[in-house]
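Supplementary Methods, section 5.1.

A reviewer requested that the exact input to the structure prediction be made available. We therefore reproduce it here, unchanged from the version used in the analyses.
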Amino acid sequence: MEYVYAALILHEADAEVSEENVTDVLEATGIGIDEPRVKALVAALEDVDIEEAVAEAAVGAPTAAPMPEEAEPEEPAEEAPEEEEEPDEEEEDEEAAGEGLGELFG
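The structure derived from this sequence is encoded token-by-token as follows.
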């Protein structure tokens, strides 16, 4: 995966995606370099429009599967009646701030 990331970094920097440049990026990160993998990556990306591939990947990205609901216990346990407490203003502010985050993740 780091080889693909190196190619994306080079593309974003408007640099040529070449064996030498990919090798330089990988060396800068301290990752061990496998020359045949670098050659294969560069050869595979020769006829690829990276900008278009990234745009298609972003549009066609799969969404997260919905979480399964928890199963109800077979025998309900006896529960003591709970007293409802009025939420503090601070708790209400925290809840309001967290509501928008849930919308980000579906």
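The chain has five helices and no strands. These observations are discussed further in the main text.
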